[in-house]
Structures are given as structure tokens and as C-alpha cells.
Specification:
Strand order of the largest sheet: 1-8-5-10-3-2
Radius of gyration: 17 Å
Structural class: alpha+beta
Oligomer: single chain
Number of helices: 5
Shape: globular
Order of helices and strands: HEHHEHHEEEEEEEE
Helix content: 25-40%
Distance between the termini: 56 Å
């Protein structure tokens, strides 16, 4: 099976991994993302002096404006690192972990069509959970908000993921995007990796450790 996954990834620049996480773990992380967003919003509204866009997350990512996003969360960076060997098996590439980035989409949010920066040669999108209770089940009986990827042949492929499912793709090489979301919320995390033997071998995205922002200097006082 591993060889089949590697071959599909090589031929198409993406591959879907079902049940990467079990449903209970995915749901726990879904609730964790919602709690993170609520915590950041509360701090922004009530303790702005101590709100820090680097440590608390933000709503100003130009690729998904208005969606809560956070770089390098300790929980997700831990999952990122622990999954490194699995990513090697799935892709057939000797990868190093760079960073995690989780996001909570809300109704009407989009993900602009784009390619990722060099620290995202091998990208993954892992679905954690979603709420579409606002939709009429007769009109939308099986609504699953797709992520779109463009394969090697230029085909635009919609990929629907259930909680715990993951897509691995060459984020630096292929276009990927999401059209307007019509549900209530949708949580997912990106786990990013680079080829250890490639031109962008930047383990941990150049950070001294996992779980901290990129390029952020901690102020020290005596």
C-alpha cells in the first residue's frame, strides 16, 4: 500500500490519506481550534495591550482574510514533528518538518488560489471538523467543502475531506484554493515539510525550536 501511495503522489503531485487521525482525536483538535479562536478574540477585545499577533493568532492572512489563523501552535507543531516519518513513507521523500498553521474558516470565507512559499515544498491539509448545521439537508444532503488542487496535467480536482482525512500535495509547485464556504465553520491544519536533500532544507522554518513564531525575538528583562 505504501508503494501505491508513493507512486500516486509522484504521478499526480497529491495524494489523499483517509483516517490519518481517528475521529475522536480529530474532534478534540477541532474543539481546540475553536477555543483558540475564541481566546484570541477575547484577548483582542478585552486585553489588547497584551494581545500579540505572533503568539495569539490573527484574522489578517491575505490568503484567507477574515479567517482565524495561527502559526506554530505547540500542539500542532508536535503533531507535525511526530508525523515526519509517516510523511517520508507516504511521499518517498526524506523530509524535514518546517511548521504547522491552523485555521478556522467561517461562513463566506475563501482561500485564494495560490502556491506556497519555499518552506512548504510538501504540504498537507488535515481536516479536523466542520459545522454545516445551517444548511438545508434536502438541498445539501452531503455538503463537503472541497479544497481544489491542480494536478500535473492542469486538471482542477475538488478534494472533499472528512474529519481525520488528509491531503498531501506539493504546495510550492501546484495551485490550490477553496471557493466560498457556505457552512458555519470549518477547522483544518496545514502541516508543512521540505525535502532534506533539496534547495529549501529549512528544518523548523528556521526557528530555534518548535511551538514559537517565526522570526520573533523574545524580549528579555532583568
Amino acid at each position: 500500500m505504501t508503494n501505491e501511495i508513493q507512486e500516486y503522489f509522484k504521478e499526480n503531485n497529491y495524494v489523499i490519506i483517509n483516517n490519518f487521525l481517528d475521529k475522536n482525536t480529530a474532534n478534540l483538535l477541532y474543539l481546540y481550534v475553536i477555543a483558540n479562536a475564541k481566546r484570541a478574540d477575547y484577548k483582542y477585545q478585552n486585553d489588547f495591550e497584551h494581545y500579540d499577533v505572533h503568539w495569539d493568532g490573527n484574522w489578517i492572512d491575505e490568503q484567507a482574510p477574515g479567517s482565524y489563523s495561527r502559526y506554530g501552535d505547540p500542539m500542532f507543531d508536535t503533531i507535525l514533528e511526530q508525523a515526519t516519518n509517516m510523511m517520508k513513507d507516504y511521499t518517498g521523500i526524506d523530509v524535514v518538518s518546517t511548521y504547522s498553521y491552523h485555521r478556522l474558516y467561517q461562513q463566506n470565507d475563501v482561500l485564494e488560489r495560490h502556491k506556497d512559499r519555499p518552506s512548504c515544498e510538501i504540504s498537507t491539509t488535515l481536516c479536523l471538523g466542520y459545522n454545516v448545521e445551517n444548511l438545508d439537508k434536502n438541498e445539501y444532503p452531503n455538503y463537503n467543502w472541497p479544497m481544489w488542487v491542480q494536478d500535473k496535467n492542469g486538471n482542477e480536482i475538488p478534494v472533499g475531506l472528512e474529519p481525520g482525512d488528509m491531503i498531501i500535495y506539493r504546495g510550492h509547485d501546484i495551485d490550490h484554493w477553496r471557493e466560498e464556504f457556505i457552512g458555519l465553520n470549518h477547522a483544518q491544519v496545514f502541516l508543512h515539510y521540505n525535502d532534506k536533500n533539496g534547495p529549501f532544507n529549512t528544518e523548523w522554518d528556521g526557528r530555534p525550536m518548535l511551538g514559537i513564531p517565526r522570526g520573533y525575538q523574545i524580549r528579555r528583562t532583568r
